[in-house]
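SAMPLE LOG
Freezer: B-3
Tube label: C17
Construct: single chain, 98 aa
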Amino acid sequence: MSNTAVLIDEIESLPPHLAAEVMDFVGYLKHKNRKDEATYPEAGKPAALPRFTKAQIEAAAQSPEIQALVGAIPSTGLPPDITAKDIREMRLAEKYGV
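STRUCTURE (predicted):
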């Protein structure tokens, strides 16, 4: 008996109230498969990630969307004029004593 036939027999033997759960699980499996195919288009090879230059990253950080997010983050006791570069330098100094 094929897998499909076995699945149909199993589904038909379930109580009616479990049909919705089976449908939800089938939907989950389809979604997971689409996500896996998007992540790994070729078998075993991860999808290539886009490359950005430092200038592109800095420009994106200054976009209104990102700046709106920065303003939404609660204050952490840092001076208002501190930059990501300043924070990075502080963390490196803490970690490596430079």
